[in-house]
C-alpha cells in the first residue's frame, strides 16, 4: 500500500454515544487520493473502545488504532496521535463531533495543493446539542466570533479561532515546534502554530458539526482549572523570544484578564488562599515573571478594591 497523502486523526475518550457518527462521517468522504484514519482512544470505559475495534475489523487497511493501556490524559493521547502520521496532511477532530460534507477532505486537499502559502485551513460548522439537534448554522455567530478568509498570527494571538472538528494542516508544521507548543499542545495552539508557517485559511462552508454540550471535557472542567490551564498555556509563550518580541502586549493583557477573572472562582467555593497559591506558583515560574508579577498584581489588587468599593457604596 502506497504512503497516504492524508492522515485523518481522531482523538477520543468515552465517546460511545457519538463515535459511530464521527467515524461514519470520515468513511463517507469522496476523494481521489490515498488516505488513512488513525484513532487514539485514551482507555475509554464506556464502550468506545469496543466500537472502534469493530470498525477496525471492518476496515483493517484503512483504520489504525492507538489504544492506550491506561488513561494517560488528553495531552499525552494527543501527542501520541500527532506522532503517528507520516502523511503530507493531517485532518484532526474529536470523537464527539462529526462531518456533514462528503467533499470536506477533497476540498481541503485541493486548496492546500494549489496554494503553497497556506499552511492550514478550516471551515465553518453547524452547532448541535447533545442529542444532535441543530442549535446554530454558524459556529462563529454562536460563539460571538468573526473569522476572515486569510488569518495570520496577529489576528488570533494568543488563542485560536478554528472549530476543532474541521481543522486541516500540513504535517510539517509539527516538526521541531517551539517550546510553548511542545509544553502545552492543544487545539488553539495548533491554530497559532499554523500561522507561524503560513496562512490559516477559513473556508466559508459548513463541513462539520460541532457538538456544544455540558459533557465536553473542557466545558465540564472547573472554572479555576480552565483559568490555570490557559495561564499555563500562555506562560511559555510569554517567554518565547519570537512571541515576546512581536506579541508581548497582547499576551500580557490576556494573562492579566485571566488572573483577574480567577478571583471569580471565590464565588464557586474556591478559597482565596487556594487561588492565590495557584497564581503565585504561576508568576514565579520564570525570571520574566518578576516583571509580569508587578504588572498583574497591580491590576488584580486594583480590581479587588474596585469590587469592594462597588459593594460598600451600594
Features:
10-stranded mixed β-sheet; Spore Coat Polysaccharide Biosynthesis Protein SpsA, Chain A; 10 strands; 44% helix; 314 residues; 12 helices; alpha/beta; 19% strand; globular
Looking at CATH, the homologous superfamily of the largest domain is Spore Coat Polysaccharide Biosynthesis Protein SpsA, Chain A
Q: Into how many domains do the coordinates divide?
A: 2
How many β-strands, per DSSP? 10
Which sequence of SSEs, written as H and E, runs from N to C? Answer: EHEHEHEEHEEHEHEHHEHHHH
Mean pLDDT: 86
How large a portion of the residues is in β-strands, by DSSP E? 15-25%
- Terminal CA distance reads 73 Å
* Number of distinct helices: 12
Radius of gyration: 21 Å
Unreliable spans are 308-314
CATH topology heading of the largest domain: Spore Coat Polysaccharide Biosynthesis Protein SpsA, Chain A
Return the CATH class of the largest domain.
Alpha Beta
Please tell me the CATH architecture of the largest domain by its name.
Answer: Alpha-Beta Complex
Structural class by secondary-structure content:
alpha/beta
Summarize the biggest pleated sheet: 10 strands, mixed
Description of the structure:
- The protein is globular, with a radius of gyration of 21 Å.
- Mean pLDDT is about 85; it is low at about 310-314.
- The chain has helices at about 20-25, 50-60, 75-85, 105-115, 140, 155, 180-185, 185-195, 225-240, 240-260, 270-285, 290-310, and strands at about 5-10, 35-40, 65, 90-95, 100, 120-130, 135, 150, 165-170, 200-210.
- It is built from twelve helices and ten strands.
- Helix 9 (about 225-240) runs antiparallel to helix 10, helix 9 (about 225-240) packs parallel to helix 11 (about 270-285) and helix 10 runs parallel beside helix 12.
- About 35% of the residues are buried.
- Strands 1, 2, 3, 4, 5, 6, 7, 8, 9 and 10 form a ten-stranded mixed beta sheet that branches.
- The longest helix has 24 residues, at about 290-310.
Amino acid at each position: 500500500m502506497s504512503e497516504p497523502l492524508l492522515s485523518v486523526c481522531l482523538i477520543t475518550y468515552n465517546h460511545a454515544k457519538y463515535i459511530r457518527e464521527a467515524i461514519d462521517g470520515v468513511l463517507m468522504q469522496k476523494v481521489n487520493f490515498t488516505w488513512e484514519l488513525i484513532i487514539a482512544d485514551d482507555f475509554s470505559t464506556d464502550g468506545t473502545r469496543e466500537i472502534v475495534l469493530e470498525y477496525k475489523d471492518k476496515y483493517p487497511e484503512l483504520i489504525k488504532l492507538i489504544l492506550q493501556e491506561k488513561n494517560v490524559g488528553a495531552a499525552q493521547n494527543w501527542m501520541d496521535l500527532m506522532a503517528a502520521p507520516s502523511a503530507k496532511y493531517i485532518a484532526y477532530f474529536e470523537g464527539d463531533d462529526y462531518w456533514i460534507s462528503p467533499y470536506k477532505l477533497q476540498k481541503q486537499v485541493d486548496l492546500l495543493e494549489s496554494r503553497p502559502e497556506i499552511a492550514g485551513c478550516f471551515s465553518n460548522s453547524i452547532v448541535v446539542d447533545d442529542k444532535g439537534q441543530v442549535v446554530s448554522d454558524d459556529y462563529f455567530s454562536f460563539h460571538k466570533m468573526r473569522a476572515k478568509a486569510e488569518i495570520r498570527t496577529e489576528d488570533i494571538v494568543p488563542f485560536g479561532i478554528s472549530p476543532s472538528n474541521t481543522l486541516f494542516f500540513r504535517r510539517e508544521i509539527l516538526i521541531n515546534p517551539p517550546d510553548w507548543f511542545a509544553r502545552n499542545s492543544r487545539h488553539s495552539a495548533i491554530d497559532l502554530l499554523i500561522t507561524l508557517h503560513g496562512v490559516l485559511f477559513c473556508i466559508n462552508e459548513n463541513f462539520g458539526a460541532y457538538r456544544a454540550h455540558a459533557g465536553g471535557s473542557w466545558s465540564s472542567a472547573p472554572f479555576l482549572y480552565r483559568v490555570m490551564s490557559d495561564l499555563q498555556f500562555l506562560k511559555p509563550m510569554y517567554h518565547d523570544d519570537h512571541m515576546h518580541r512581536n506579541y508581548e502586549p497582547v499576551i500580557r493583557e490576556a494573562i492579566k484578564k485571566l488572573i483577574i477573572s480567577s478571583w471569580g472562582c471565590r464565588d464557586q467555593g474556591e478559597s482565596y488562599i487556594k487561588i492565590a497559591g495557584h497564581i503565585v506558583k504561576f508568576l514565579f515560574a520564570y525570571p520574566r515573571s518578576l516583571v509580569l508579577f508587578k504588572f498583574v498584581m497591580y491590576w488584580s489588587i486594583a480590581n479587588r478594591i474596585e469590587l469592594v468599593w462597588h459593594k460598600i457604596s451600594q
